[in-house]
Amino acid sequence: MPMNEQPPWGQKKKPSGPEDFLAVLIQKIRDAFAGNEDGPAKPGQGQQPPDQPTNFLAGGGKLLAVVVAVILLQGAFSCFFTIKPGEVGVILRFGQYTRTTHPGLHFKIPYIEELTKVDVESVRKEEFGFRTRTPGVSTTFDRKGFDMESLMLTGDKDVIEVAWIVQYKVSDPVSYLFKVRDVSQAVRDASETVTRRIVGNMDFDYVLGNREILAGHAKRELQGQMDRLQCGVSIVTLQLLDINPPEQVKPAFNEVNEADQDMKRLVNEAEEQYNKVIPKARGSAKQIVEEAHGYAAERVNRAIGETNRFKAILKEYQGAEEVTRQRMYLEAMEDILPQVDHVYVMDRSQHNILPLFDLTKKSGQTPLPASAQ
User: Domains in the chain, start-ordered, CATH in brackets?
Assistant: First the structure.
């Protein structure tokens, strides 16, 4: 028989598309629930009287069996679960915490135990005073509309804008899930409170020049508040990114900075001059004082030496007057005669003066040449 010819008894009609297949399936389900297991009535067969009640019990039993089968299949698929690296699973049994599971394949009782996965490796962040619009190599930020977050008052009653960022990780999954309803909002509120209090206790200049120290203090205090609230998070970083005066007062702020720099320059110049003049004057004064002490010591020592010499001469004079007088006269002549130009010897028997020519000194005349001599 050729392939394209139909048998004499006819060929069963198949659904031509998804719509026909869905319509046939819906019709079969309706027939099954109505108790008509043999399908639609064929010609020549007797049909059920319209007043005979439908077998609802049979349809309900089939529906229950389908529901039970679906529940069993769903339970079988849900009793096994996998925890990815960097996550932990928190298991609740009838709403009460039971255990914490780590990365890997695990089993739980279906419909009795509930699983909640928590990412403990990812670093979450909260931004204050700005928002990141397009992260990446060339990150762009938006600061419009966030002035109330960054506007603060310092200890010397100056207005300042501080933009900072807080990064944290989940350290206790159970506390993170069940102790605080909104952990991110708690982190924001606590961070804003701590930062505003620390900045409010410091002067404007100190805040500008010591942002790292302030960030360290704020991080420690924020971690302490998170521990008291039992948020189950660990603060990784608290960094003060940008500290500037508001746009409205920037010109005045720049003038104040210029005046402050001029003042510091003048003070430095004055200190430089002070360091040059004062130490020099102190050194000169100390030198004069030391010279005076040395002169005084020299005069005293010389006077003491002359006194001792005089006493020694007096002692010798008292022992031999004539010899001592003669020796003193000769010593005085030795000191005086080399200093005089002319010496005159007076003799009592002579009436004239006998001059002595000093041969030790030059006469002042130029020597004669050898031929003349």
Answer: 80-119 (no CATH), 124-244 (3.30.479.30), 247-357 (no CATH)
